[in-house]
Structures are given as structure tokens and as C-alpha cells.
Amino acid sequence: MERKVDGGGTMNCVHAASPTAPPVGRQAPVRGPQKSPSKGHRWPPGLVLDTLDMNRDMASQPKEPLEDPKKQSFWMPGNYARTVQRTDQSFQACNDVTACFLERAKVEKLYAQQLSQWSSKWKAIMDSRPVYGSLMRAWQCFFASTERLAALHSSISQSLVAEEGERVKTWQKETFPKKLFCGFKESYDNKTSFSRAQKPWSKKLTKLEKVRLAYHKACQKEQAALEKEKQVNDNPALSEEKKLKTAEAKERAAEEREREWLPPVKKLKRKRRNQKGKESRPVMIGGVKVRALYDYVGEEADELSFRAGETFLKVEEEDDQGWCRGVLSGGKEGFYPANYAEVAEC
């Protein structure tokens, strides 16, 4: 949208997309006849206000979170190193400030010496010249001001080294205490704390990355099987046996993809199970028929093992740790993860 002010002080507003259409939102009031945009169309003041309201509403809308494809977020494992390095970088910044003051002090000192030398040289020259009266006093004031300026720059040089530089060094020594063989104590403490806090998350993320890669490969394999099946079905010269094998390969690829991700299971500590907790859960008379969603191999003697799609009975409701009691078709009774099975349809 382009805004112009004509000679009479009236604001003209031309919309880039549609000169005759008001912006999205409230309907702009039309006051008086409308003129052609090419001749300087005068839009009503209400249109300008509506446009400003619309822009403000669009600016206040929440933005979507930015993606992090390169995993540069602070919360990714190991990325806390940038925060830990700030202590070392701050210590080095203090050294840089001290070095900067020292160089500036050298410049000030050199300038003061040059002014003194220049003043002494030309003062001796002017003393040997036939200068009298007001001209002599002017030269004397000129050289006196030069000496005062040289003394000022010399004091600045000494202040930068003896006062400001020492103040920065003292603050640096008090703020960054060192720990023997480990650099700065603050860096060591931060690194240790961050590492301990991110250790479980790092393990889970590594496991998730492995599962993600395996799932991606399984999806690629399934897609290849689908494309191959399509090519086989489109070729009438191939036998039914070939088509049947291709369909079976596609089904195996689909089953493999579904088995790549198993939901996490909170392990039940059998030694801490007590008889009181066992009696407090309701027991189902006759049981409920459930179907396994995933393969599971029991790790304890009182856990069941089954394959995906197998049906059995659930005879006890889920406990507070996420386990149910069930009975397999062979009669074996034991525990299984509640999120590994669902109620079977009748």
C-alpha cells in the first residue's frame, strides 16, 4: 500500500492489488464519490484506520517455532559448551581491555613526549629572535599551553596503566577464581552440571535417532516394494505366482515398518511387589480378550512373551506401573506391559 499527501494535505492511499477493494476486515465506509486511482483517488479516513488495524493484528499473531535442522539449539546434547566457554571468553575479554589500555597509554605518552620536544625546540628558536612586547607574550602563551597539553596526555597515560588497568586486573582476579588442573572453577562446575543433566536425555536421543534411521530404511523398503508390485501388476506377461510373491514381499515390508518402533515400557521391579498391592487391584472374572500390538519377550520369570497379533486374556487391570496380568492360550499366566495390547474386537 502506498500513501501520498496531495497539495491540500489530504492523505491518498493506493492499494497495490485492487485499488477499489477495501482491506480484509471491517467494511470501510464510503463517504462521497470515488475518483479514479489514476487521477489521485481520495480514500476515506476509515480505510486508513482499518488498514492500520489489520497490520497490527497480523503483527500480533503468534509465529510458528523455527525449525532447527542443524541441531544448534542449546538443549541438544553437547551444545552447552558455548555457554561454558563464556567464562573463558570473558576472562580473555579482560585481557583484551588491559592490552587496549596499555597500547593507548603508549600512544598518549609518545604524544606527550613529542609535544614537549616540539615546545622546547621552538621555544629556544623564538628566544633567539628579535621578538618583543605582545608578540613575545603570544608566543609564551602558545608554548605554555603546549606544555599543559603534554602534561595532560602524560597523566592520561599514567592513569590508564596505574589506575584503570589495575582496576580491571583486580576485578578479573576476584571474578574468575581458578581450579587446579581444571581451568576456571565456574567453567568446571557448569560443564559438570550440564553433562550430568543431559546424560539421560542424550541416551534417549541416541536411541531415538537409531530408531528413526531404522524406521526410515523400513519406509524406503516398503515404498520400493509398492513400486515393484505396481510394475508387476501392470505387466500382463508375468505369472500369478510372481505377482503373489511380490504382494507377500510388500506385506513383509509393511510389517517390518510397523515393528521398527516399540513404545517405551517402564520396567516393573518384581522384588518390590507386595501382596497388599496385588489384592487391591480388581480381578476380572473370565478375563477380557486382548490382541498384542507388538512383539514382546519377557525378561522376568513371571512375564509373558508373545508376538504381534496374538490374542490372549487379560485377567487383572493395569497397576500404577503400567503392567497387566494375563493368561496365554496355552495356560501360562504372567505380567505384560499394558501399552503392548488392546482390547480385541468381538
From TrEMBL:
Q: How would you describe this protein's topology in the membrane? A: Peripheral membrane protein
Q: What does this protein do?
A: Plays a role in endocytosis and regulates internalization of plasma membrane proteins. Overexpression impairs internalization of SLC2A1/GLUT1 and TRPV4 and increases the levels of SLC2A1/GLUT1 and TRPV4 at the cell membrane. Inhibits the TRPV4 calcium channel activity.
Cite the Gene3D superfamilies for this sequence: Arfaptin homology (AH) domain/BAR domain (1.20.1270.60), SH3 Domains (2.30.30.40)
The protein, known as: SH3 domain-containing protein
- Supply the PROSITE patterns for this chain: F_BAR, SH3
Which residue intervals make up region (Disordered)?
1-47, 225-258
Q: Which GO terms describe its cellular component?
A: endosome; plasma membrane
Main localization is membrane
Q: Which residues form the SH3 domain?
A: 285-346
